[in-house]
Design goal:
The structure is a homodimer. The first copy, chain A, is about 50% helix and about 10% strand. Chain A is α/β, with parallel strands linked by helices. In chain A, strands 3-2-4-1-5-6-7 form a seven-stranded parallel sheet, sandwiched between helices. In chain A, α9 links the parallel β6 and β7.
Chain lengths: ~350, ~350
C-alpha cells in the first residue's frame, strides 16, 4: 500500500504527496519507510529559507517569489513550507492575506504546506528537512521555507536551506535590532521589504555596515569589497566567495521580485560551482546519521540499564551526594559490565 | 591550585569567582573539575529568567530588580547573567545605559557577568546552567538571567530558570506579535514595561487574552478564573496552580518594581510548596546526565568505528546509493561485531 502511494507521488498525484507529507510529519512507521525510500530520489531541489521578524512581509514575498519562479521556468515546480503559526499560509493572519495566498493554489505546480511549530519546536529543523526531502523526491525544484524571527530553531531551519534570505523592513532605533546578529550571520541574500516606507536607506546602510563588520556568511573568506548584487562598482575579479547582496523590494506591488529571483538563481549557481552545494548535502547527511546514531545508542543503553538504577542515581545527585558526572560514570561502568556478561 | 581557587570562591573572593566562571565558560579541564566539585554545594539559588523583545527595557528592569532584592534582603547576594550581545551589561548598547548599569557594580554583593551568545548558540542553555551553578555554589541567592527575544535558544535558557519573566512594552498591531506564543507559554510573570506609554491597557488585555486562551504556564492545571497578582477579586480558595500575574512597570522610574519583586518571591514560595522546585531540579539533573551520556556513547562509538567506514557510507548516501538509515544500520552492526570481538 505504501509503495502504491509512493508510485502515485512519483506520478505527480497531489493527494498522495499530501498523505505522505502527513505520515512523515507525524513520524509514523509508514512515513519513515517512505522517507527512507524517497531519499534515494532526492538531491535536485534548491531549498530557500526566508526569515525575518513578524510584520516584515515574508509571506507576501514568498507568494511573489513562487509566482516569479513559476513564470520564469514554467517546467519547474515550487513547494512552500510555512514554518510559522502566524503565517497567512497557515491561516494565522488577517483574512485578506489568506485569500491572496490562496491564489497560488490554483497553480497545480505549486504546493503549499504549513507546519505547526508549536509542540515540536525542538525537532523543527529535522521535520522541515524531512518534508523537503519528500518534495524533492516528488520533483519540486524550488522549496521555499518561511520561518519567523530569530532564535536557534530559526537558525536550525534556515541552516538546512541552500539559500537563506533575511527580510527586514525600513526602520530606525529599536526596530533596527529586530534582525539579530545571529540571523544575519547566516544570510545569503538580504532584503529590505516595504521599501516605499521612510527609512529605507538607513536600513540598507545599517545592513551594509553589519555585513562589513563581518556579520554575514562567507564574508570572512572573500577579501573583497562589498558590492550590491546589481551594481558593478568594483573593478576587481569576481569574488571567490559569495557576497550577500542587499535588495529593496515592495513585495505587495511585485517590485524587486525579478532581481531577488535573479539573486536566488545566481546563488544556486555559485553553490554548485564552488562545491558548496555538495558540501551542504554532505553535512546534512552526516547530521542525519549522527541523529539516528544517538537515538539508537540511547535506546540500546536504556534497554541494558535498569530504570531504578538511573532513578536512584538522580536521587543521590538531587541530594547533592554525588555529581551528575559521577552518576554518568556509574551508568557507563554498569553498561560495560552488562555488555561483557551478555556477550559471554 | 584548583582547590585553592575554589576555597577562595567559597570565602566570597570575587576574583576567584570570576576566574572559575571563565574556566567553566571556556570548558577547560579545570573548569569542568571545579563545576563537578561545586555542584555538591548548589541547590539554594532562585534562577530568574527575564526575556522579551529588544527595546522592551529588560536591562533597566534587571537593574532595578537587583537593587530591590538587595535592599529588601541585605544579607542576600544577587548575580546577573546577561545572555545578550546587545545588552548594556555586555557593553553592547548606548553609553548612558552602560553607565547606569555600572552603578550596580559598586555593591559588592552583586556580580554581573555577560555571556557572548555568538559562536556558542547551540549550547547556550547548557553554558548558562553551568555559570548559574557556580554562582549558586558561591552563595548567590538570586540569579537574574537576561535573554533576548523569542526562539528555541531563549526558550531553552529560560526553561532552566525557576521563574520566567516575559517583558513587553505597550503597543498594537505588528508590535503585538513581538511576544510569540512560544515564549508566552513559559511565562510565570508577565510584565508590561514602559507603562507610561500609550496602549498599555491594550497590551495588558492582549496578554490577558493570551493567558485565558491557555498560552501561559500551568493555566491548564488550575481550573480557576484569571486574577491579577495583586487583585483579590476572586472569592475562591487559593489556586493549586500558579496563575501568571500581569504587572505594569516603568523600570526607569522604579515604578512597579516592588510588586514585581513580591511576585518573584511569591513564585519561589509557590514552587517550593507545590513540589515544583524539586521537580525542576530533578529534570535539570536528568537532562544533564542524558547530555553527558550522549557525549560518552558517541565518543566510545567513534573510537570503535573507523572514520573511513563512516566517510564511505556518507559518500554512498550522497550518491543516493543508500539512505542515511541504511548507513546507520551498517555502522551499528559493525559496532556490535567489534564490541563482541574486543570482549572475547
Amino acid at each position: 500500500m505504501t509503495s502504491a502511494l509512493i508510485d502515485s507521488l512519483r506520478k505527480g498525484n497531489r493527494l498522495a504527496l499530501s498523505r505522505i507529507l502527513s505520515q512523515v510529519e507525524n513520524g509514523t512507521e509508514t512515513g519513515m519507510a517512505a522517507l527512507e525510500e524517497l531519499f534515494l530520489e532526492t538531491g535536485n531541489a534548491q531549498k530557500i529559507g526566508i526569515t525575518g521578524p513578524p510584520g516584515s512581509g515574508k509571506s507576501t514575498l514568498v507568494n511573489a517569489l513562487a509566482r516569479e519562479l513559476r513564470q520564469r521556468q514554467p517546467d519547474k515546480k515550487v513547494a512552500i513550507i510555512a514554518v510559522d503559526p502566524s503565517s497567512p499560509f497557515t491561516g494565522g493572519a488577517v483574512l485578506g492575506d489568506r485569500v491572496r495566498m490562496l491564489d497560488l493554489e490554483v497553480d497545480k505546480q505549486i504546493f503549499i504546506r504549513s507546519m505547526a511549530s508549536r509542540g515540536a519546536l525542538g525537532g523543527l529543523a529535522e521535520q522541515t528537512e524531512a518534508l523537503s526531502q519528500v518534495f524533492d523526491a516528488a520533483g519540486y525544484d524550488f522549496i521555499l521555507i518561511e520561518t519567523v524571527g530569530a532564535g536557534q530553531s530559526e537558525v536550525d531551519v534556515v541552516n538546512l536551506a541552500h539559500t537563506t534570505i533575511v527580510v527586514d523592513t525600513p526602520g530606525t532605533g529599536d526596530d533596527i535590532q529586530s534582525i539579530k546578529a545571529g540571523i544575519l550571520e547566516i544570510a545569503d541574500i538580504l532584503v529590505v521589504n516595504k521599501a516605499d516606507r521612510p527609512g529605507v536607506d538607513q536600513s540598507v546602510s545599517y545592513l551594509r555596515n553589519m555585513i562589513e563588520m563581518g556579520y554575514a556568511r562567507s564574508i570572512n573568506n572573500g577579501k573583497h569589497h562589498l558590492q550590491d548584487f546589481h551594481e558593478d562598482t568594483v573593478n576587481e575579479p569576481a569574488p571567490a566567495g559569495w557576497i550577500p547582496p542587499i535588495l529593496k523590494t515592495i513585495a505587495y506591488e511585485y517590485q524587486g521580485i525579478k532581481e531577488l529571483t535573479d539573486a536566488i538563481l545566481a546563488h544556486a549557481a555559485h553553490l554548485r560551482q564552488s562545491g558548496q552545494w555538495h558540501a551542504k548535502d554532505q553535512a546534512s547527511i552526516r547530521a542525519n546519521i549522527r541523529r539516528q546514531l544517538i537515538t539508537s545508542l540511547l535506546s540500546d543503553f536504556n534497554q541494558k540499564v535498569p530504570t531504578n538504577l538511573l532513578d536512584s542515581l538522580i536521587e543521590k545527585a538531587q541530594k547533592r551526594a554525588i555529581s551528575p558526572n559521577e552518576a554518568v560514570r556509574v551508568l557507563l561502568t554498569y553498561n560495560r559490565i552488562i555488555s561483557l556478561e551478555s556477550s559471554e
